[in-house]
Amino acid sequence: MNRGNLRKQQEKFNTLHSRTRQTIERAFALLFGRFRRLKYLDMNRIDLIPGTILACCVLHNICLDFGDDLMREYVQEGMDAIVKNQQEQIIYESENKKRVGNERRDALCEELNRNDNRL
Question: pTM here?
Fold first, then answer.
């Protein structure tokens, strides 16, 4: 969303970032719906999270190979769980975090723009 304070490059970056984020959210919703145990994954154990997600992806592909094709139901159930989880969490964003986030966004935006100009 541009409230008149973003440059064209930042707006383009935000659009691409949003599309990617939505794709990732749907993928995680599918996994959360299919593997309900993920809802209880200890997010403080960052060392365990990638392996657990990878294992779920492999198991998901095995399920598909054997004809389990209830993806629509899994995605809806997973999205419901994600929304509920987000509603239960209250996030206070400090100005410093917002500033750092804006700086990172701008750096990624500039890199994306440089790569576009090379093509």
Answer: 0.53
